[in-house]
Design goal:
The complex is a heterotrimer of chains A (303), B (507) and C (360).
Chain A: H1 7-33, H2 41-59, H3 62-86, H4 91-110, H5 135-139, H6 144-162, H7 164-174, H8 176-181, H9 186-212, H10 224-234, H11 239-261, H12 268-285
Chain B: E1 4-15, E2 18-29, E3 33-37, H1 44-51, E4 59-64, E5 67-68, H2 74-79, E6 82-85, H3 97-103, H4 111-124, H5 140-152, E7 158-162, H6 170-185, E8 189-194, H7 197-203, E9 206-211, E10 214-219, H8 226-234, E11 251-260, E12 270-278, E13 282-286, H9 293-301, E14 311-313, E15 316-317, H10 323-328, E16 331-334, H11 349-357, E17 364-365, E18 368-369, H12 371-384, H13 401-413, E19 419-423, H14 431-446, E20 450-454, H15 458-464, E21 467-472, E22 475-476, E23 480-481, H16 487-495
Parallel strand pairs in B: 3-8, 3-9, 6-7, 7-8, 13-20, 13-21, 16-19, 19-20
Antiparallel strand pairs in B: 1-2, 1-4, 4-5, 9-10, 11-12, 11-14, 14-15, 17-18, 21-22, 21-23
Chain C: E1 2-6, H1 12-36, H2 41-49, H3 51-54, H4 58-85, H5 92-110, H6 116-145, H7 149-169, E2 195-197, E3 202-203, H8 204-222, H9 224-234, H10 236-242, H11 246-269, H12 284-294, H13 299-323, H14 327-344, H15 346-349, E4 350-354
Antiparallel strand pairs in C: 1-4, 2-3
Helix pairs in contact in C: 1-2, 1-14, 2-13, 4-8, 4-9, 4-11, 4-12, 4-13, 5-6, 5-7, 5-11, 5-12, 6-7, 6-11, 8-9, 8-13, 9-10, 12-13, 12-14, 13-14
Chain lengths: 303, 507, 360
């Protein structure tokens, strides 16, 4: 049964399957490192999916579509930022609201786009490199967004580890009162982080509607945003572990799809629930990491 | 006469319902160690936050080196040479020393160079510190060093220190004072905020005294008596509690080999603690903040469960019992943090009465609350402990710190404990209320209860304790009679030299 | 420049006014939204909020208010316990599905036995236990391993949906249904129906919802459990100091909300929905989150909020058929309501002050 699956194809397709979640998760990682818990990833992703799709259809360019997705989702994220940072609303409730709102907004926007086909995203041409056995297919056979997602992960890692901006962001997430006392603008930094998180979630959503599926259907993210949130916990808020988590998850998804296709004698529904069950199991095993000190707490400068 | 570095002219800052600073004017000269003296709530914090750019004054102005000085934010203040060592909330536990220091600098050098400079400065001023240790794992004294070095790396002209010694052992205080004197000799002015008179007399050249937001006096602390300054600070005479040394009755609490991990990240584990307390006795437990005080209280209150045999109360092994089972046995506690631990800020005083008094005051029947009784009990606490509030329906957070403390302590005392454990009973409480709380604790002991007072205020402990012990890194020194203990002995106990023979200290 | 200043204590006035303000804002912005969709905003608002109650067909719509409102109120009451205690069960949709499946499974297993005194109580029991059991998964995982209950309860919604599909296509499929997915119709099985008066919209879920409101009110205001729940939500450390067992509270809160959501699902499947089908769940579990917040987590508030939200469902359907207003617009409308509610909530705890820049 497993013998029929080509391992290089499996790895290559798990990377594709993991990319939407990876993008959304790396954005959320930055948000959470800044001390904000945005549970609206699902809503931002699906908004990105529909915005990206609409823009890509109307401009004919998937690249402009991705830009539109990032912008649309970031805009939605700013609503969350305004509510939680200025109006000091509860982050959990506001994140839920963002998801409910995003689901409604996206299906309204996408109504007349159901059934259309998105312009396709060409693969990056690595020439002879993609001829290398196994590695060629795994490393050099993808569309640009797969590489963009990896670059973002590397960029976030370097930013958090080596730059002053990253240090300030971590400080704000660790102890916002102390960061404020040192004169850092907690609210502004969090606004920026939330917008970045939104943009990343938007890219992830657009990857679903423009590459992976590629068309628009209502509720197409099907919990990917929530899984992204779980992967941030799994990764203990570290970028490289996040990559591992997302690809592990991609692996489960692809395997499950392959089993469905190969007609195993297990009802499709049980296979379809496996990614969610695996996510729960992973959360159980990996709930030991230490969260940023101010995560989810409301900040109000009383002075 | 040294030239003026910073002059404050008529600074006024009002918050709703309270004027924090009113028409405050004084000068700080170059290289001087200037004390800012006042009780809690006198307006010291607001004033230094104004100087540091965290608070904008409603009126008045400041001049630095003769030029107008209006820092819009701390960055500006730092750039102009004003640095501040905070008392609370300014370090990041999960980051290392070098990262913490970099965050407080305008243009930090590269990490490697910074580490070298940290080592340099720490050696020059006698403040040893490893740049790559995680701050959460440091002791309170070491954490303060991080703050000081962070300031020193900026070559400040004015260094503000907010209650720096409350987290230090006497020996560490000596080191700190040497550092400060050295800095002052090099021309750095120091604004030293404290309410400890002896320290100010030992260190400062000038003292400005604040009361209720106003400057009520200026003096040379080296030539004034502590009593003169205290009277200016308090604006009246102090009631000193009376203490009849108790003889000690039956053993109430027996703690033996108490070890437990801290329930909090970066907390302090308790290690092999052993002591006993008798009826009618006050045991004072001193120690620098963060040495296991919270954990010890939790182990006694029942929030932290311990292994069998470690905690015995009236002969019963209560290590696995929860807070309410201990309350039923007349073991009551009052933790240090009032807001959010001893009391729920958003809840009314009546509801806060239910918080701990449900069991002993019979405030519920079959699980259904008897709000009338709860309210009556809250009113009793308010009346007997002189809590200033319009009534028991007010939220706990609407009370001032001192009033809420009186409420919390009163709530426990009125439940007739056989053993009361309090942590920092008078922290942030004005002098007269503090005296009243101490007197109430002494009365409780006189009535036959055992009392354990955990505090960082040594003067307080010496005043009310029959026996004294010190916490250091989760260990407790053997309790000794408080009467006759010298400062050096206490210092050694606080510093962790528990097993050292006292004999050679007397020399 | 606008500045927020914390109130010495939460304002009772604003606590009750903010939901009304949020509704008003939502109506205004919803009107703008409908106008952008090319509908007359006034007609749309009237269709949604007034027609179900006062139009010439109101007698047909009014019973629907009970039908839609009951599950919302029932679930929201359960959620409010947890939300007050800081336990975030957002997987009520899943518990609702499992409750329905368990309740229906009992009935279908005993079909065609005629013994209402046995079958219906058993269905209630299993419906509640099903929801409770499903909610215990995140509960026990949180207590035992510290796993985040938000994510686990939500993941379980997707698992429950797949399980629902598997059941509708497999074990619970109507053997006489000629291969179509979906179970037997329970409303045609006298021992298993939750209808009391179908024309009046009255079923056992409605009665249970009202009972839940009363019970929740008593527990929250009079019982030590309600006190502990509020305490744990406001100050977890104070709760531990007070002697509240945090793990136990998590289980109680999740268990209560799970059981009530399961009951809601059971009453729905044996009444208004009638059968287990793939698209049985319509999002009550998520809308109930809005209901809970809109009702300020207060039982009476939840009752009112549930009614209002039911109104938007019914009015939304009318607007859909009469004005061709897209269904998604109503969903968006509900999302907007929650946003505005959270936004104006700031007035409860803070005063808004206008501050002029001082003249230096």
């Amino acid at each position: 049964m497993f013998g029929s699956i080509d391992p290089s194809l499996l790895v290559a397709s798990l990377m594709v399957a993991a990319t939407p979640i990876l993008l959304a998760a790396i954005g959320e990682l930055v948000v959470e490192r800044a001390g904000v818990l945005n549970l609206g990833v699902e809503g931002m992703m699906i908004t990105g999916a529909v915005c990206g799709f609409i823009v890509a259809i109307n401009t004919g360019s998937p690249y402009v579509g991705f830009a539109g997705a990032a912008a649309g989702a970031a805009l939605l994220a700013l609503v969350f930022a305004a509510l939680t940072q200025w109006l000091l609303s509860n982050q959990v409730a506001t994140g839920l609201a963002l998801t409910l709102f995003g689901l409604g907004l996206s299906s309204l926007l996408g109504q007349s786009y159901v059934g259309m086909r998105a312009p396709s995203l060409p693969r990056v041409d690595f020439g002879v490199l993609s001829e290398i056995p196994f590695l060629g297919r795994v490393l050099f056979g993808h569309d640009p967004m797969v590489y963009v997602s990896l670059l973002i992960v590397a960029g976030v890692w370097a930013f958090l580890r080596y730059t002053r901006g990253g240090l300030v962001l971590r400080a704000v997430g660790e102890n916002h009162a102390a960061a404020h006392a040192l004169g850092y603008n907690v609210v502004a930094i969090r606004f920026a982080a939330i917008a970045f998180g939104g943009a990343c979630a938007g890219l992830g959503g657009a990857y679903l509607s423009l590459v992976r599926v590629p068309q628009w259907t209502e509720g197409m993210t099907a919990g990917a945003g929530w899984i992204a949130l779980a992967i941030v916990v799994f990764a203990s808020w570290r970028p490289w572990r996040l990559l591992l988590g997302a690809y592990l998850f991609g692996g489960v998804t692809v395997l499950q799809l392959n089993l469905q296709a190969s007609g195993v004698a297990i009802p499709v529904e049980y296979l379809s629930m496996s990614p969610y069950v695996v996510t729960i199991l992973v959360l159980v095993v990996m709930s030991a990491g230490r969260a940023p000190g101010s995560l989810g707490k409301t900040f109000h400068a009383s002075t | 006469m040294k030239e003026t570095l910073l002059s404050l002219e008529g600074l006024t800052k009002a918050y709703p319902g309270v004027v924090a600073n009113e028409d405050v004017s004084f000068d700080i000269r170059r290289g001087e160690v200037h004390a800012l003296l006042g009780e809690n709530g006198a307006g010291k914090s607001t004033l230094v936050k104004t100087i540091y750019g965290l608070v904008k004054p409603d009126r008045g102005r400041m001049r630095l080196n003769g030029a107008p000085y209006e820092p819009a934010e701390p960055k500006v203040a730092r750039r102009l040479g004003v640095a501040m060592v905070f008392q609370h909330f300014s370090l990041f536990d999960a980051l290392n020393v070098a990262e913490n220091i970099a965050l407080g600098m305008e243009n930090p050098p590269r990490p490697r160079d910074l580490a070298a400079r940290i080592r340099d400065v720490s050696e020059t001023y006698g403040l040893p510190l490893d740049p790559f240790r995680t701050v959460g794992d440091l002791s309170a004294g070491e954490r303060q060093r991080v703050e000081i070095i962070r300031c020193l790396l900026q070559d400040p002209k004015l260094l503000i220190m907010d209650e720096p010694t409350s987290v230090l052992t006497p020996q560490e205080v000596t080191i700190l004072f040497e550092t400060l004197r050295k800095l002052s000799a090099e021309g750095t002015a120091i604004l030293y905020i404290s309410h400890k008179l002896e320290e100010i007399r030992a260190l400062c050249e000038t003292a400005t005294i604040l009361r209720l937001g106003r400057v009520v006096g200026t003096c040379d602390p080296r030539e004034s008596s502590a009593r003169q300054m205290a009277e200016m600070m308090v604006g009246g005479e102090l009631l000193v509690p009376e203490r009849e040394p108790g003889e000690g009755g039956a053993v109430m609490l027996e703690v033996a080999g108490l070890s437990a991990a801290s329930p909090r990240p970066f907390g302090t584990a308790l290690r092999d603690i052993g002591f006993e307390v008798r009826a009618g006795e006050v045991l004072g437990i001193g120690g620098v903040a963060g040495n296991g005080q919270d954990e010890l209280l939790a182990a006694l209150s029942g929030e932290l469960r311990t292994k069998p045999g470690m905690v015995r109360f009236k002969g019963d092994d209560i290590g696995r019992r929860g807070p309410n089972e201990r309350r039923a046995r007349a073991l009551l506690t009052a933790p240090e943090e009032r807001m959010g631990h001893a009391a729920a800020p958003d809840m009314s005083l009546t509801e806060n009465a239910v918080l701990t008094a449900n069991v002993r005051e019979d405030l519920s029947r079959h699980g259904f609350l008897r709000w009338g009784r709860a309210r009556a009990f809250a009113e009793l606490v308010i009346e007997r402990f002189d809590v200033r509030t319009p009534g028991p329906d007010r939220a706990a957070m609407s009370l001032s710190g001192g009033n809420l403390q009186k409420y919390v302590i009163g709530r426990e005392i009125l439940q007739r404990p056989d053993l009361l454990v309090v942590n920092q009973p008078t922290w942030g409480v004005d002098a007269s209320a503090a005296a009243a709380i101490r007197q109430a604790l002494l009365d409780l002991a006189a009535g036959g209860a055992a009392v354990i007072v955990i505090s960082q205020d040594l003067d307080e402990l010496m005043e009310i304790s029959d026996r004294f012990a010190a916490l250091n890194e989760g260990r407790l020194s053997a309790p000794r009679p408080a009467r006759g203990l010298s400062v050096e002995e206490i210092g050694l106990m606080l510093g962790g030299a528990h097993d050292m023979e006292v004999a050679h200290v007397d020399a | 420049m606008i500045r927020l200043e914390r109130r010495p204590q939460p304002s009772t006035f604003w606590t009750w006014l903010t939901p009304l303000l949020a509704v008003a804002l939502t109506v205004v912005f919803g009107g703008v939204l409908f106008a952008m969709l090319g509908k007359d905003p006034l007609v749309a608002i009237r269709t949604i909020f007034f027609d179900p109650l006062f139009s010439q067909f109101a007698s047909f719509y009014r019973p629907q208010l009970l039908v839609k409102g009951a599950p919302l109120v029932l679930i929201a009451i359960g959620l409010s316990f947890g939300f007050r205690a800081g336990v975030w069960n957002i997987g009520a949709e899943g518990q609702y599905i499992i409750g329905a499946l368990c309740g229906a499974a009992v009935a279908l297993a005993l079909y065609p036995m005629e013994a209402r005194w046995l079958i219906f109580p058993l269905m209630i029991l299993f419906g509640a236990l099903g929801g409770l059991g499903w909610a215990m998964i995140p509960g026990l995982l949180k207590v035992r391993f510290g796993t985040n209950e938000i994510l686990v309860s939500l993941m379980l919604v997707y698992v429950a949906e797949q399980l629902l599909a598997a059941m509708a296509l497999g074990p619970l499929r109507n053997p006489e249904g000629m291969g179509f997915p979906g179970s037997r119709n329970l409303t045609q099985y006298d021992s298993a129906t939750s209808w009391i008066d179908r024309a009046g919209g009255m079923h056992w879920g409605v009665i249970t919802a009202f009972l839940a409101v009363i019970l929740a009110y008593v527990v929250m205001s009079r019982h030590i459990l309600g006190f502990q729940i509020r305490l744990a939500g406001q100050s977890p450390r104070a709760a531990a100091f007070s002697g509240v067992n945090p793990g136990g509270l998590v289980l109680i809160c999740l268990g209560t909300s799970g059981a009530l959501a399961g009951l809601a699902g059971m009453f729905e499947v044996s009444g208004p929905a009638g059968q287990v089908s793939i698209d049985f769940n319509v999002g009550y579990g998520f809308t109930a989150i809005i209901v809970a917040f809109l009702g300020r987590l207060h039982p009476v508030g939840i009752l009112l909020a549930g009614g209002l939200m039911a109104l938007t469902y019914i009015g939304g359907e009318i607007a859909q058929s009469q004005l061709q207003l897209p269904a998604a617009a109503i969903q968006l409308f509900q999302g907007m309501l929650l946003f505005f509610l959270l936004a104006v909530d700031v007035l409860t705890h803070f005063r808004v002050r206008l501050r002029h820049r001082e003249v230096a």
